[in-house]
Amino acid sequence: MHDDRHEFAESRLTTRHGEFRAIAFREYEGGPEHLALVHGDPTDVEAPLVRMHSECLTGDVFGARRCECGAQLSIAIEAVVNAGRGVIVYLRGHEGRGIGLLAKIRTHVLQDEDGLDTIDSAVALGLPVDVRDFGAAAVVLRHLGIGRVRLLSNSPAKVEALTGHGIVVTELVPVLEPADEHNVRYLTAKRDRLGHVLPQVDAAPDAPRGHTATGY
């Protein structure tokens, strides 16, 4: 199915979490292929739960513990299923906040060997901190007839990004993974330098402190 320059394909998908409509879509010809998992009828409520999840192969598939990506995805899917309706938008091409898998692994080396955080390690390689675009999420939400959402995220900047594409965010719903020895540096950098709302970091022992900035 085509909608102007957008392309969609849909089927039913049974997962260990429950039943979904699986909508594969592409925002533009030659662009990355994304996937939306739709549970129940999200148009039954004024603002359904929606998660815009950036692809993270190491976290989502292999359970890497230096980030909380895989845990956030599981938490978001559970929240949508428990609510009886909602949408998980899985955005490909977002690996490493858009720098790609090779570059992300290179930043890991700098983090482990030189003590740089997730932001400074990208900058040290001459890479941008974040080049993600969330327009594709707005495309599939409009395709589903959804104009207002409760966003499953800890990032106020994602609210701004989605709002900028014409989707109203009525609430930012936290998706919190406990901080531990493996992820505390990553979570602290996201809190202090990218503006994420992560109250669980305060309870973690020896959480490093950084300067503040804004971002996704």
UniProtKB/TrEMBL annotation:
Residues 9-174 form the GTP cyclohydrolase II domain. GTP binds at residues 51-55, 72, 95-97, 118, 153, 158. Gene3D superfamilies: GTP cyclohydrolase II. Its EC number is 3.5.4.25. The active site is at residues 130, 132. The keyword Cytoplasm does not apply. InterPro entries: GTP_cyclohydro_II, RibA, RibA-like_sf. Its cofactor is Zn(2+). Keywords: GTP-binding, Hydrolase, Metal-binding, Nucleotide-binding, Riboflavin biosynthesis, Zinc. Pathway: Cofactor biosynthesis; riboflavin biosynthesis; 5-amino-6-(D-ribitylamino)uracil from GTP: step 1/4. It catalyses: GTP + 4 H2O = 2,5-diamino-6-hydroxy-4-(5-phosphoribosylamino)-pyrimidine + formate + 2 phosphate + 3 H(+). Catalyzes the conversion of GTP to 2,5-diamino-6-ribosylamino-4(3H)-pyrimidinone 5'-phosphate (DARP), formate and pyrophosphate. This is GTP cyclohydrolase-2. It comes from Pseudonocardia alni subsp. carboxydivorans.
